[in-house]
Amino acid sequence: MTKPNLTFKTTSVFVLCLLSLTTAFAQTDARAAQAEPSYEVVLQVVVGSNDAAQKNNLPANLNAVTKNLKINFTFSNYDLSDTYIGRVANTGSIDYKTISGNFGQAQNSQTPVFLDWTFQSLRNAPNSKGQNTIQIQQFRFGARVPVVTATLKDESGKSNPVVSYEAIGLNLRTVSLAENSPTLIGTLPTQKSGETIFLVLTVKSIEE
Predict the structure, then answer these.
(1) How far is 41 from 35, CA to CA, in rounded Å?
(2) What does pTM read for this prediction?
(3) What is the DSSP letter of 60?
(4) With bands split at pLDDT 50, 70 and 90, how would you rate the model's confidence at 145?
(5) Nearest in space to 205 (alpha carbons), one of 32, 58, 39
(6) With 0-12 CB in 10 A as exposed, 13-18 as middle and 19+ as buried, what is 52?
């Protein structure tokens, strides 16, 4: 009479163990399925020059950066030329391509400037002080700009420029910056004498 009772107890224990394991695996899968935190990436292109026609047109978030620029550079004017915004998750990347009128050249539909910037493998980790720090495996900002290499005359005697595209840019590996803090990460001269482009990067977390 005791064998059925023993079988029932053994079966019950097996079922309870199976349910416990199923619950544990489900919790592990739920944690693994959680989305990585998201970040807003803002790249601001600031142009420094001594052109009196340019205005000091910078947003308030760049005040600290501007103070450092004025200490290290002698330009009389700083102007925000472009702002690029992207959204990426932890360990994610951005690849951006566009046509731009930067690099000291007026916008020309026949010889545009092709701009691209990439942002590879963002990671968030605390620094030695426990503060959130953003680390980027690679950052690249580049452009293909038209350069006149010669002038040829057609049958009517009209002079036509011969244009060749040259690649210029900045390539950085393993860059670190404080979260939600505009940081100057590089400079590039333009084709216009006495003019420089400053690249300011800001990365901040986004609450879902």
Answers:
(1) 18
(2) 0.75
(3) G
(4) confident
(5) 39
(6) exposed
